Amino acid sequence: MVNVYNICMKDKTTDKSGNNKLKHPIFTRVVLRIVTIILVFILGCGTFWFASRHFSDFFETKSESKAALIDRQLSLCQELVTSKYRYSDIISLKKTSGFAKSYSIIKYSGIIRVGIADFTEISYQINEVNNSVKIHMPAAEILGNEIVKQEIFDDKQSIFVSITTQEIMDEIDAARQTAVENMIAEGVLKESEEYAKRIIKQFMLGCGFDEVIFI
Q1: Average pLDDT estimate for 132-152
Q2: Contact 70, 130 (CB under 8 A)
Q3: pLDDT confidence of 137, banded at 50, 70, 90?
Q4: Do the strands 132-136 and 211-214 form a parallel or antiparallel pair, or are they unpaired?
Q5: Strand pairing category for 12-14 and 20-22
Q6: Contact residues for 70 (Cβ-Cβ < 8 A; gap 6+)
Q7: Residue 19 above 70 pLDDT?
Q8: What is the number of alpha carbons within 13 Å of residue 149 lying toward its C-beta?
Q9: Alpha-carbon dihedral sign for residues 157, 159, 160, 162
Q10: What distance in Å separates the CA atoms of residue 61 and residue 63, rounded to the nearest whole number?
Q11: Measured between alpha carbons, how far is 146 from 189 in angstroms, rounded to an integer?
Q12: Rounded CA gap, 20 and 94, in Å?
């Protein structure tokens, strides 16, 4: 540290009356200004370091709290059903053997559930600079296809050529798979993904993010 007192004393002289008189007043002011600048610089650096450390901790804590909130909510929602489709159809089974004939006409209805099977497979990246989050979401899929109702419209059984219960169930199962294939061809998976993205986006915006990007 520069000794301002010594410098000032060296720049002073004593006149005949015994009074101290500045020998070089301009030089003294320059030295004092340099010392002041050095002190201000040191103080500024210390303040900046202190603030940067605490702001860094603040943003890190804030980012961790958002990540913890996201993980907690995703773990609570294991499965997201975005769409349910009801369908119905009629199947007719016929069997003949000579003059013997049997047939069954059955009406059935089912429900197809579409959505995200496992929410914990969703990954994300938080950008603290622009307060955004990038989301990678698994593809939508068929979550279930259950027959909820079936009834026989007409039925005639011959002891010589009967229609078994298993044959009826196999026919319904084949028609059920056809219903799924038709709905996939119509774009139900794409619609379900778009709906899931809207739900996740609203959730992320509710967590405080300004922008949600799907990758």
Answers
A1: 93
A2: no
A3: very high
A4: parallel
A5: antiparallel
A6: 124, 204, 207
A7: no
A8: 7
A9: positive
A10: 5
A11: 18
A12: 129
